[in-house]
Amino acid sequence: MTAEAPRYRPLNPRLGTHYAIFMSAFVSLVLLLAILEQLGARKLWLSHIMMVVPVLFYLGIAVMTRTLDTHEYYAAGRRVPSVFGGLALAVSAIGGVGFFALTGAVYLIGFDALSIALGLGAGFVVAMVLIAPYVRKAGSYTLAGFLRERYGNRLLGPIGALLALPPAMLLLAVELRLGAFVASLFASVSYQTAIALGAGAMGVAVLLGGLRSLTWTQCVQYVVVMIGFLVPVTIVSLMVTNLPVPQLTYGDVFERVATLELAIGIGAQDPGTLAQALPGERPETVIKPFLQAFGAVTRGDFVILLFCFLAGTAVMPSLVTRAGTATSGFEARRAMGWGALFLVLFLVTVPAYATFAKLLTLQDLVGTPLSQLPDWIGKLRDAELADVADRNGDGVIGASELFVARDGVVLALPIMAGLPFILVVLIATSGIAATLAAGGAHALTMGSTLSEDIYRGVLHPSATPGKRLLVARLATVALIGLTAWYVAESEFDVLKVAAWAMSLAASSFLPALVLTIWWKRATSWGVLAGMIAGFAVSASSIALSQAGEQASGSGDMGLISALFGVPLGFGVAVAVSLITPRPDERTLEFVNAMRDPGGEALHDRAIRASASGQRRDATVGPM
After folding, report:
1. 26 Cβ partners below 8 Å, 6+ apart?
2. Pick from 169, 456, 406: which is nearest to 282 by CA?
3. The CATH number of 15-370+408-496 is which of 1.20.1730.10, 3.30.505.10, 1.10.510.10, 3.40.50.300?
4. Max Cα separation, the chain?
5. What distance in Å separates the CA atoms of residue 591 and residue 593, rounded to the nearest whole number?
């Protein structure tokens, strides 16, 4: 086997300057298009320019950061500064689900949807403290590879890879669906064409440079996401409260929202099942008071849903393996900390966004005669983001006669506020950036896993670096294409599928990673059994929920399947570890070295030693 010693390159001291220049250029583009809109430019041309130019910039970064170096492709050379690593981590966690579905869920069920936001944020903290620095110190390119190197059991590689594929593929499907939905609204392309274009953009960003190109592209995409998300809600906050700080001013709007809800007859509700509580993607009415706690879900379901998203986020392969891009284990922890900070900036803005959207909806529409409806309702109806229906024939729109699409709330706010059209397209562009960033991360995870843990780990252990990269690229293309075909042919709810993916990841990897890092007595057979048992239970719960079987009193079992899979995974892993032989000295030495997150990665050290040994053999060998 040919060893390839990692090559470390110095960090670019002008990274901050480069991204500041991009931010200035992007803001200038938005201002220029806003001026052209006021001068009468066609909206179709404005939307095309606004959406295409950033995508071309992402692709340009991918071209400039292309690589044929395996260490760069799989780990970005382990030289990504913590701040930039945090930007990439945050936008991977936000994705289209956070940008569109989470914001819409908060609008529709208010306080109760915050269980998802709290789970995402807390999952980052758990990963930062318990997992990421130690995965970085081990230095493996994939989670399955980390488990294989920890225990020396070759079965852990392929089985871990097979368990990592379903949640990554589900999340990739979610991102493709959301991105295509938004692109088809503002670009003159069909939904199927938008899926193909989104898959192509993700593929190019990943194939040319792997994690290297993905990381630097995602840093730009986070900037685009936050500019698009913050600008409209900040303007609305200034219009409503005279202060441009929506995260601090939306609390003053609560009383107005509650008063309007009371005036139109929205009263306290009793919680139902979790499956009924979470809003779907079809337009639906709002019958629960925005501020009522546990009016849509019970206290128990709130905690369970929070746990499922927390556990899934903490061990999601596309997030945890990003720790490998940091310069050290300590820097990996700092990167996770920065990622948590950047993620929290988004999460604290979500309820502000939903609150201002709720206020504008109530004061402008509900209770208004049909003959006096505002112009923006027609625009939302044309885009299939909202609708009204005078069911009782009284000529006035009531609370139960307004239907709002969950994934369209983000796009609806600037329309309801009467903001320039270019700001609506700016939000769409930001949402597409979020879907490309998260989808690319999941696609790269799947391709790297198949190449490193199945092709190299099982089929061809002596594969050269060039063949490994070729297989990784081919596998990524194949999986993106397969997922795109599935999205084009299927109908599914993105929030529900994202919850399934979180539970599958948590059930498979949370017990395995926690025990692997923090319990020396854990054995390869125990971890292997725990992973399989946890995944099997979680997947079975999802299958049963799809077949119509529901857990008594808890709604859809699939949404909360981590509640069953994670404890079972821990129990099985511990029990099997206790009845199998203790780990050998090599394994214990690996654990001790891994628990000291400073210094060079163990994987890199082994490669360097192997390369050095081969050079010595070549020197003393026969002429």
Report:
1. 54, 223, 224, 227
2. 406
3. 1.20.1730.10
4. 99
5. 5
The DSSP annotation for 499-555 comes to HHHHHHHHHHHHHHHHHHHH-TT--HHHHHHHHHHHHHHHHHHHHHHHTT--BTTTB
Is residue 419 helix, strand or coil?
A: coil
Strands (E), 203-342: none
Rounded CA gap, 34 and 422, in Å? 6
Task: Return the number of other C-beta atoms located less than 10 Å from residue 267's C-beta.
Answer: 12
Which residue carries 């190197």 as its tokens? 149
Average pLDDT, integer, range 492-507: 94
Express each pLDDT in 138-161 by its tens digit. Answer: 888 899 999 998 898 888 989 999
Tokens coding 163: 């368990």
Q: What is the dihedral of CA 176, 181, 184, 186, to 10 degrees?
A: -120
Q: Of the candidates 141, 159, 129, which has an alpha carbon nearest to the alpha carbon of residue 322?
A: 141
DSSP state of 278: S
Question: Residue type for 503, please?
Answer: S
pLDDT digits (tens, 9 = 90+) for 531-563: 999 999 999 989 888 776 544 444 567 788 999
For 159, the token pair is: 């089985």
b/e sequence 402-429, b meaning 16+ C-beta within 10 Å = bbbbbbbbbbbbbbbbebbbbbbbbbbb
DSSP calls for 171-197: HHHHHHHHHHHHHHHHSSS-HHHHHHH
The DSSP code for 582 is: P
Spatial separation of the C-alpha atoms in residues 310 and 304, rounded to whole Å: 10
**Three-class SS state of 284:** strand
Q: Are 493 and 280 in contact (CB under 8 A)?
A: yes
Record the tokens describing residue 449, joined without a space: 């896993």
Question: For the chain, which residues make up each domain, given as ranges?
Answer: 15-370+408-496
CB 259 within 8 A of CB 289: no
Alpha helices in 13-113 (DSSP H): 15-38, 43-64, 70-75, 82-96, 103-109
Residues 561, 507 contacting (CB under 8 angstroms): yes
Q: With H, G, I as helix, E, B as strand and everything else as coil, classify residue 403.
A: strand
**Secondary structure class of 396 (helix, strand, coil):** strand
Model confidence pTM above 0.85: yes
d(CA 189, CA 14): 38
Residue with structure tokens 């306080």? 111
